[in-house]
From TrEMBL:
Family: Belongs to the nucleoporin Nup85 family.
InterPro entries linked: Nucleoporin_Nup85
GO BP annotation list: mRNA export from nucleus; positive regulation of DNA-templated transcription; protein import into nucleus
Name this polypeptide is given: Nuclear pore complex protein Nup85
Protein localization: Nucleus, Nuclear pore complex
Organism in which the protein naturally occurs: Cerrena zonata
Upper taxonomic lineage: Eukaryota, Fungi, Dikarya, Basidiomycota, Agaricomycotina
Function: Functions as a component of the nuclear pore complex (NPC).
Keyword field: Membrane, mRNA transport, Nuclear pore complex, Nucleus, Protein transport, Translocation, Transport
Length: 718
């Protein structure tokens, strides 16, 4: 099966695969359209002879390819506009908001919609240029061209802005048509203009007829001027002289400040057209042909377009290869110059009855649905073509109130349904997790729950890398206690979308990673950030295990980077930290400091550490015996006294309590850890060690009494 990588079996070896007692099985994902393909037994595994390894690969497949290259950039660029739309919706929902006037909202939405349009245009131009250079791209230029044309039409019809919504739509439709479906081509016009007698070219009359249909009056007038000066027929010369200014003088709505003035100018222009028709009809039959073409029929068609004759326009559009879109645009320019957006569906319905759209062409289906005033149907077709188009049109439709109360069969809002689909598509590319979360968090409870799953599965890349200088620098900053890299971005994203529970979970994951590296300072820091106090307790246990397993020197070195973390936590949280766990952490740090001072020969300070941790009662009872035994060298020192008599008395009380509890059967609570530090040790040997401390303390206390050592001073020369 060569489509699987690595292949399950080589081409031509299917029989060997079948004879091994296996077959292929699939499992569809309940979340999306992806599936898992894997090999499984096709007979009783006990009766078959195994000829394959125990571990079998599982292949994951999806009907959609993960976004790469220009597609990934396109997703990133348009996500910025999407966030602006969400901000607009959020502001508009706030009571008594003065951020913008209600009348400004349609204009703001129009601007944002055109931002989408510009992005689709840019990526179309870019991919076209790259393909021309021989650089393959994930999507064809035609794919982005369709996105560009469809989003442009949607914006024109449904997000025209406050002013444009009230004016006729014909000129806007014609401009859209000429932008996205260029006809006739500039090359044709250049070739014809280079000829002395262009009317003898078969393409001449179709060219100027199509130019007239498209409202390209200057191009038509140029060739009419040629006919007026060079054509042998005096009738055609005279008609051309009259027709050229009529074409260029066609009233356009943009030329007028008031629609009333536009209507008056249009009536006057129509009167001139009728006059030209009368003049045309007076031409004798025998003078209507120049021996090459019946020019009269051609001029009559052009005048019929200007007159707004619907049947003539439909016939001409069919002859020149135009479709229903062109007829619709022409209708709003020549047939009904005051056509409103709300009236378009009736006009388009009548046109489609004579010139139906192509149901197999998604571009045609999307555009006809938009023009018919069926936005929900348009979204359905858009999702089949590219879920990006459906998601962003649905989002704007929601903002415009077009699908506000529409839901799917699962009671999911229609807008959320398409945005969720798009987010699932982005999940195919793990690097798009930020955008995926941003989109999901706009889709209610369902979206937030899905976003939580995405955030918890982001690869934090906390392990120390081996092959990337940038990654090494990022890792070094993180280990220096600086929030950086993916971890910083995930943390910021959780704050942005108020996913506190997920942020804490991510911090727990980070803490576990640092714990495995024995970076206890960072592990504790992230546990505290997650408010995972039991987790912090487990880390402290691991820290203390360093003492039991590797001894005081290694323990002191390991804990050296925890002290700053402890100070930071105490300064940030004061007394709000969980008492049990902070006491254990404080003990680990202070106990490590005690051993570090002993190793450095700072015995006076070491003795102070012992007394402080006992007086502050931060020593767990299970560690009393360990601390006391580690203080033996201070008690046995014959040159100096490191403890005052009252300090020695306190230590003696601890020893007595250990002995008393041991006789009552609770020795494991006091001696278990000390026993673990003794090779082949048990509770009996541990108790013997404590008895040695007891003896040393008795002697120390007696020496203090002989030379009258007392008070609060803890260091005396003999």
């Amino acid at each position: 099966m060569p489509s699987l990588a690595p292949p399950l079996f080589e081409l031509g070896h299917a029989e060997e695969f079948a004879s091994s007692g296996r077959t292929l099985a699939t499992a569809f994902s309940p979340r999306d359209e992806s599936l898992a393909v894997y090999a499984t037994n096709n007979v009783d595994p006990q009766s078959s002879q195994r000829t394959y390894p125990d571990v079998q690969p599982v292949y994951f497949a999806s009907p959609q390819a993960a976004p790469v290259a220009e597609r990934r950039t396109f997703i990133s660029d348009t996500s910025v506009v999407f966030e602006l739309v969400q901000n607009l919706s959020m502001v508009s929902q706030q009571e008594n908001s003065n951020a913008f006037r209600v009348d400004d909202r349609p204009n703001v939405i129009r601007k944002l919609a055109y931002d989408y349009v510009n992005h689709t245009k840019e990526v179309w131009v870019y991919v076209t240029r790259e393909i021309a250079k021989g650089q393959p791209r994930q999507y064809t230029p035609d794919h982005y061209r369709i996105l560009y044309s469809c989003f442009s039409l949607f914006t024109l019809l449904y997000a025209p802005g406050t002013e444009a919504e009230r004016i006729p739509v014909g000129e806007d439709l014609m401009e859209w048509l000429n932008t996205h479906y260029v006809e006739p081509s500039s090359e044709e016009g250049i070739q014809l203009s280079a000829q002395d007698e262009p009317w003898q070219n078969e393409a001449f009359w179709p060219y100027i007829t199509r130019a007239t249909v498209r409202g390209l009056s200057k191009a038509t007038a140029f060739f009419l001027d040629i006919l007026a000066s060079k054509h042998p027929s005096p009738h055609l010369q005279r008609l051309s002289k009259s027709l050229a200014p009529l074409l260029t003088g066609h009233p356009r709505i943009q030329q007028f400040t008031a629609e009333r003035d536009f209507a008056i100018a249009s009536r006057r222009w129509k009167e001139k057209t009728k006059t030209l028709r009368l003049e045309l009809d007076r031409i004798p039959e025998e003078a209507r042909d120049d021996g090459f073409e019946n020019w009269w029929d051609r001029i009559s068609d052009i005048v019929g377009i200007l007159e707004g004759r619907g049947e003539v326009i439909k016939r001409i559009c069919e002859e020149v290869g135009a479709d229903w879109k062109e007829v619709t645009a022409v209708w709003g320019v020549y047939v009904d110059g005051r056509l409103r957006r709300a009236e378009l569906p009736d006009v388009v319905t009548a046109i489609l009855d004579d010139m139906p759209s192509d149901p197999t062409d998604l571009e045609d289906a999307i555009q006809s649905s938009l023009l018919l005033g069926k936005p929900i149907q348009a979204l359905s077709y858009a999702a089949q073509f590219d879920v990006w188009l459906a998601a962003h049109m649905a989002d704007l439709m929601q903002a415009l109130g077009l699908i506000e109360n529409e839901t799917t069969d699962s009671d999911i809002p229609l807008r959320d349904y398409y945005v969720l689909q798009y987010a699932e598509y982005m999940r195919l590319d793990p690097s798009c997790w930020r955008h995926t979360v941003s989109y999901l968090c706009t889709c209610g409870t369902v979206g937030h729950e899905m976003a939580d799953q995405v955030l918890m599965r982001v690869a934090l890349r906390l392990q120390t890398p081996k092959d990337s200088q940038t990654a090494n620098e990022e890792s070094a900053r993180i280990r220096a206690g600086i929030l950086d890299g993916v971890l910083k971005e995930v943390n910021a994203t959780c704050f942005e979308h108020q996913r506190e529970a997920v942020r804490r979970m991510v911090c727990r994951i980070a803490a576990q990673t640092f714990l495995r590296e024995k970076n206890y300072g960072l592990a504790i820091s992230y546990c505290a950030s997650a408010e995972d106090w039991p987790g912090m307790g487990r880390i402290v246990d691991r820290v203390l295990d360093e003492y039991i397993i590797n001894g005081p020197a290694s323990f002191a070195h390991t804990v050296a980077n925890i002290a700053p973390t402890l100070q930071s936590l105490r300064s940030q949280n004061g007394n709000n930290l969980n008492g049990v766990f902070i006491h254990r952490l404080r003990f680990a740090v202070r106990f490590a400091e005690f051993h570090q001072r002993r190793l450095n020969g700072e015995l006076e300070d070491a003795a102070l550490d012992v007394m402080d941790i006992f007086q502050e009662e931060i020593v767990p009872t299970s560690w009393w015996a360990v601390v006391l035994c580690d203080s033996l060298d201070l008690l046995r020192n014959n040159e100096r006294f490191y403890f005052a008599s009252e300090d020695a008395y306190l230590l003696m009380r601890k020893v007595e309590e250990i002995a008393l509890q041991t006789t009552h059967g609770s020795g494991s609570d006091y001696l278990a850890i000390l026993a673990r530090t003794i090779k082949n040790g048990d509770e009996k040997l541990a108790l013997q060690r404590v008895q040695m401390v007891r003896l040393a303390l008795t002697r120390y206390y007696a020496r203090c009494g002989v030379i009258d050592v007392g008070g609060k001073m803890s260091v005396f020369s003999k």
